[in-house]
């Protein structure tokens, strides 16, 4: 080692010593579940986002890694955690896992800023969209089974079944379908039904898509059978105008497909009411498991197309910039 190298090494040692003086290892002994809750309480987010974060911490992060201390967590813990979220029985979608890992990285980054740990072991971890784990074929209905469900579900929700199976929409997105969604050869998804839409006093029955701003959307190509089902729905029912106030105070009008059609008929359908009817349809169609319970849920429909591509899981470590969502958002 030359003189310059020796001097540089000496400087590094001295800097490391000074850093250790400022850093107290004892501050990193707090359990992750405790720190995650403290982090969440400091966040200024919407009610639905807070509820989603709370659910994720309670149902996933806490049970798997919550008992470990901040200082005891290493990168491999979070890599395996991300893989398990996607490959386990919960089977969270790749985009959902990656969104949640951004949140987990933020929780750990706050610990770095608070001088509880020196490095963020969760930074930049995500599952590659190209290498998503294959969906269990037994958990996905066949096209013939989709037709059976659609044939047995209450007619109000028949189109929702095909919107989900044909375009991969979430139940909340399908229930928010309106005339503005339909374009030439594709559908433009911009809204989802609010978790409070079925409450009598709800003033915002529709909210932006998950992790998107009000003017962001998602465009999805449509197959012929989806177009035919939309036409069949419109021949039976006219769209119902719903006026609500957006996030910026602007009044918005949507010609909706699933809103109540008679005065006093009730409120917007909820995800729970759709799920209940979906379960009944499975039972009526004989689509049950060994225990006699409904074999599928509305979520099963989102995996119909993805189940045809067997692939293997992979976790990629990226920079914070690269780890941001790569979903195709378009402004309208």
Core attributes:
332 residues, alpha+beta, 4-stranded antiparallel sheet, two-stranded antiparallel sheet, disordered C terminus
Structural write-up:
The chain is an alpha+beta fold. It is 40% helix and 11% strand. Strands 2-3-6-10 form a 4-stranded antiparallel sheet, with no helix packed on it. A hairpin with a 5-residue loop joins strand 7 and strand 8. Helix 2 (32-41) runs antiparallel to helix 3, helix 2 packs across helix 5 and helix 6 runs antiparallel to helix 7.
C-alpha Rg, in Å?
24 Å
Report the biggest beta sheet as strand number plus sense, adding barrel if it closes: 4 strands, antiparallel
Q: Numbering strands along the chain, what is their spatial order in the largest sheet? A: 2-3-6-10
SS elements, strand count = 10
Q: Taking all residues together, what is the mean pLDDT?
A: 81
Percentage of β-strand residues: 5-15%
Secondary-structure-based class equals alpha+beta
Helix and strand string, N-terminal first?
HHHHHEHHHEEEEEHEEHEE
- Name the overall outline: globular
Helix content bin? 40-55%
In DSSP terms (H or I, runs of 4 or more residues), the helix count works out at: 10
Query: What oligomeric assembly is this protein in?
Result: single chain
Distance between the termini: 60 Å
Unreliable sequence segments: 306-332
